[in-house]
Queue: 2 jobs
Job 1
Amino acid sequence: MDDGIGISFTVSDWIFPTKNKGDVRIVWTERDEVIVWTVSSPPELIGSITFTHIEGADRHIDDHYLVTNMYLDGPNGSGDYKRQGIGEEIISNTCIRVRFHVDDGNRRDDGGHLTGDGPGFAAKMVAKGFAYWEEGDE
């Protein structure tokens, strides 16, 4: 898969049945970006989640993924694919912990910040135990 910047290889690729918009294709790349497409022909980009892999500093801090960008609004920003379970499907199927920055209105040095539906989504994932707040942000 060519992401326009260079060649990006697929690490994982699966089909997910949304709540009421049909199946979508979820592709996890080796750049720790998850890209979501419609399965229609031709496929349309729904959006993506970008993770930053954080290596644990010691035995007290585990390796984890930090969500630094998330946009799953649907083709052309239509909003049609919001609240379809796509984000939860991705977050709940990671191999290591996922963390979010607490929404304080500021963009972090790593680029992470929550906008739009992001704060509510992050809080829901934390409440369900699928994700955690970034250490020091709680």
Note: The radius of gyration is 15 Å.
Job 2
Amino acid sequence: MTAQEVGNAIRSRFATQVATPQSLLTFYDNQDSDSAPPSARWARVSVLFGESRQASFGSTGGRQFRTTGVASVELYEPIGAGDGAQLALADVVVSAFRGVTLASPSIVFASPNVTAGFRDGPWWKRNVVIPFESDDYA
């Protein structure tokens, strides 16, 4: 499996489990979020790859390689709206990924972390960080 396949699978899960059901304006890696209106809530999703290592030995085709990473979901809520709706949305993100295993490509999600919120321009921002491991065989 390639980095592109892993990224696509994570973005697809976010879209189907969170963005579409929540009618959430979402920007993905290398999309310009400058068009986000200051009166709307929105999200930015990034897939950040970490270390890759050989997880098992064997002959060609039977060796397992594991890559770690995080999916970072930045949630933006207009200032003055309070944090209740944003925390509820963070819970939706956590539920969509916590302990989930995808078969193809092989991705295992660990327990997401919800960070403290802070002001970012006209929005209140909070991150949900979702650790994952993906496996490939070569």
Note: The two ends are 10 Å apart (CA to CA).
